[in-house]
Amino acid sequence: MDRAVRTLVIVAGLYVAAQMLADIASLRVISLWGNAVDAGTLIYPFTFTLRDLVHKVGGARIARVLIVLAALINLVMAGLFALVAWLPADLVTGPQPEFGQLLAPVWGIVVASIAAEVISQLIDTEAYTRWVRRFGERHQWGRVLASNAIAVPVDSAVFVGLATVFGVFDPEVALAIFFANVVIKWVVTVVSIPWIYLVKPTALAAAEV
């Protein structure tokens, strides 16, 4: 397998996996340093830089396809969890209520998460594209900072706003989650900047610039 294709497969796989893990973890709200935080925030911020890696290797069109594909996969995953929780348990094995209690989706969270992911990641794609067209291969750290700086607050605002509208979060909790999410995501953005130098663009990505 061509090295560039292998790299694209790896970063795309990591992106989808991180999206799925984040959506599962988001079903629980935890307390960090006295602040309410949806647990998906522990891994979700890395998806922004992983999206940047996909964009750098495969180009904007592949990044957009992957964003929509990840959203569909997460929707199917939530539907599967709901179906499994709804189906009757094998009573010989036992009632097994834990599965439904833990993984049966809170649809307000699911819809808020997927909407926030798609909107913010598409915005990230556009901001990244504009930076590359302006600076080319110079200041690669800047493309990560610039695109994430725009997409991160949008992501948190859409997620928290919709979850509040759906009655998942109280307004007070929602505000705390929003600020904590934004801070954590920006910290992760800065920490993950060096990743952008680990991959090289393919001919597909180069043709779009």
Report on this structure.
The protein has 8 helices and 2 strands, in the order αββααααααα. It has 209 residues and is mainly alpha-helical. It has a two-stranded antiparallel sheet with strand order 1-2. Helix 1 packs antiparallel against helix 2, helix 2 crosses helix 5 and helix 3 packs antiparallel against helix 4.
Strand order of the largest sheet: 1-2
Poorly predicted runs of 5 or more residues: none
List the helices and strands in order. Answer: HEEHHHHHHH
Beta-strand content bin: under 5%
CATH third-tier fold name: Arp2/3 complex 21 kDa subunit ARPC3
Radius of gyration over C-alpha positions, nearest whole angstrom: 18 Å
Subunit arrangement of the protein: single chain
Main pleated-sheet profile: 2 strands, antiparallel
Q: What is the tally of beta strands?
A: 2
Mean pLDDT: 85
- What number of domains? 1
- The CATH class: Mainly Alpha
Q: In whole angstroms, how far apart are the ends?
A: 25 Å
Q: Mind telling me which CATH architecture this is?
A: Orthogonal Bundle
Residues in helices, as a percent range? over 70%
Which class of secondary structure composition applies to the elements?
Answer: mainly alpha
Number of helices: 8
Q: Give the overall silhouette.
A: globular
Provide keyphrases for this structure.
single chain; 209 residues; mainly alpha; two-stranded antiparallel ribbon; 8 helices
Give a brief outline of the structure.
73% of the residues lie in helices and 4% in strands.
Write the layout of secondary structure elements.
Elements: H1 3-25, E1 29-32, E2 35-38, H2 46-58, H3 60-86, H4 97-103, H5 107-135, H6 140-165, H7 171-192, H8 203-208
Antiparallel strand pairs: 1-2
